[in-house]
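Can't attach files on this board, so I'm pasting raw text. These are the components:
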Amino acid sequence: MNDIEHVRVKIFAEAADFDPGEAIPIFHRWIQEGFGGHLLIDVADYRHVPAGPGVMLVAHEAHYALDNGKNRLGLLYDRRAPLDGDASAKFRQAWDAAWEACAQLEREPALSGKLKFAAGECEISINDRLLAPNTAGTFTTLRPALESLFDGVWGVGTYTLTREGEPRELFRVHARKNV
Amino acid sequence: MKASNSLWKPRLEGRMPPHLAAEIDVFENEIALKKQGKIDDKIFAETRLRRGSYGQRYDNGQRHDGIASRQLAYPSSDLTKGPSTLWDAPGMQRIKIPFGGLNATQLETLADLAEEYSDSIAHVTTRQDFQLHFVHIEDTPALMRRLAAAGITTREACGNTVRNVTACPIAGVCRTQSFDVTPYAKALAYFLLGHPDCQDFGRKFKVAFSGCRDEACGLAMLHDIGAVGVTRIENGVEKRGFEFYVGGGLGTVPQQAKRFSDFLPEEELLPTTQAIARVFARLGEKKNRNTARMKFVVSKLGIDEFRRVVAEERAQLPHDARWTDWLANVPHEQESPLKPPSLLQLNGNRTPAFDRWHASNVYEQRQSGYVTVTVTLPLGDITSDQLRALADIARKYVRETVRTTVEQNIVLRWVSAGDVPALYKELEAANLAEPGAGTVLDIVACPGTDTCKLGISSSRGLAAELRTRLAAREMEMDAVIRGLHIKISGCFNSCGQHHIADLGFYGVSRNKGGFAVPHFQVVLGGQWENNAGSYGLAIGAVPSKRIPETVDRITSRYLAEREVNEGFHAFIKRIGKAECKKMIEDLTAIPPHETDPDFYVDWADARKYSIGDLGVGECAGEVVTAIEFALTACEREAFEAQLQLEAGRTAEAADTAYAAMSHAALALLKHKLTIHSDDPEKVAGGFREHFYDTQLFFDPFAGGKFAQYFFQAHERRGGTYTEETAHQLIEETQLFIEAAHSCYGKMAAQPV
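---
Top answer:
Structure tokens for the assembled complex are below.
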């Protein structure tokens, strides 16, 4: 299943009461400054939708959102363009890109430390039902690639992976570092 | 684009209606040919529009980021999908939902598509369509195949075609209807879809159905064709037909539809519409899209002549069995409930939140024991997760009888009344139990500057702000205020239907000290009721950041001074436009940039406001230029014309409106040339030479339309005006002055 594309990584925020609206001027500034060398297009404000995409930095390669999906705030990196390498490499690239954005947000002076991201918990999903239906089979197939990622970033045997969601939803794996 | 795109075709083989599958294959080939440079830009643009694939803001590869206009370096920068429209730029996909009717599977499909190709948001439009944003053109064939497998087509969702046929969302369950118009809307929608007589229009063509005359649901009066269901007794037998209206439309200058027939028999619905389509294709303007809607044909011919021409066309039509063969099925097309009727028994389940929701979102059907529940969608948006939850609810509580509404909501029909508390809990769990359907909180807004190429001010940003503020006060809000309608358009093009709101707003811009300032024109006097019974007029432009205060002030005044049982529309009429304008006069002031820079940033944005590439001019001081004074005076004149019209002085109103246009043109001429004669002939000639022929006055999208308004008024000055044509002239005057403001803004950005 190396042909999977459209990897999404959600890194959860530790402060649940953070208003994603505070990111609007920051995302606009990222566009002005060309954050990460990406082709950043615009900022979309969906805060009026409960448990929705929050505030989204729309981009060509990948959207970044302070997403409130499932009523849980986090930075969602939503890859649109193809990634290089096998599934493991694709997960790693998406993970790194998501954390690059998280780290930048944590450093933003305007947020004065209000936004921190959980280092030991995340969700990874594949935004393509045909290539990666939300089934046990997909999980079995992709598990080695996911383990390759988390073995590298958290350490072998230090975490738990759980497939989540119903069959209609995107293939989604919750990853948590064991305490 | 998606790696799986090519896999959907074999996967869905046999599950798509063959004609839809074939059409999508053709479209996919056209995309491939365009990539090879074998199709002209303009032709491909119209081709994709006819498939519902629309452009989106910044798709020309330019975006003003608050500091400067910058290039968006899309990978395939040399490839376009239309004139000045880059291939890789995200676009909007419109999805037609005839009469708003949906089933659970279709909701699930929309959920998947919103997630996979868009941004996990599906947007319900004021035409009962869905729209997905940020879609790549190369993803559209797969997206369309998945829709086709669910029985949905995007064909003719945009472009110069018959757009989605809308209908009252409670048709069939409405307590005041003549009969259920749903089967008629459905029959006409599919008869016209792809019909050869509907392929050569100069402009779009909109049709709406309503089951009764007095309610607003169908908005029949603002459509090219508005059909209101009526019955009459013939030889002791009740016969169905339609009060049939033609030539209505909003757009820049709205026009009320004219009554074509008091009673068009049901068997005449399809052939007469076909004849009208032929007349429109034959006589409608093709070159100048600004005068190409059918309302111009009706205006030009007059309703009597239009009726005669249509009758002549109708007589020549070769018989088509499809005109009437569906009529036999009408009695069998009635929806049926999933559950038996029941009574609502609360048994202590009541909470204040439930009561508020129940009061606004539950409609007692004509069928005893059943209700229709409205799911309020903030700004028309719903997430993929919510769509799936709604699909489950639609299967559990009703026989998948779901419809979108022109107020950008969704209704569940045929809910057994006793199920309401349980249904509420499930909606609440899905964050879909927001109260306020059809109230002042249920604000309609077009996409505006969020995604639309034509947006001037942030209609959705303003709508979200107003919703938040009004919701905070909802508990103590008087019932008469709660019942008002607010509608917002991001520009003069009326997609937010601002003309028919109690409080309507449309986006404009102004300049102050060399900076652009987002504004909204305040439109009062419109009427949502009576199928959009009357259109409002703008009374003045207020900075965007002062619109919430404007709403508060107008509604407070209404509350304080209304007479017993006096509706808002009647109140505005009674106090008069002059008083209304006076009420907001002080709110039109713009504080200097250095005092309050927030006024120079739009709602839900952080960038310094600009239109296109308009930047900060060189004279960033507090100097008010002569042209700014002059254009303000022209606005006053235009308003004076409104007052004259209100007083029944039609000829005077037309003269004043023309004078306002002429003075605006003169102001521009003086700004450009320093001195100029004020002789009307010389003003018109000079304006043509320096602003029209040079295209300096042209709007990026409307071209020379607004200048044409002036030329037409100049030609017609001193002529006879009716109340309706004078009303139209005043609208045109306002738009001409807005265009003069924009033109001045452009000139200020490039010092003369």
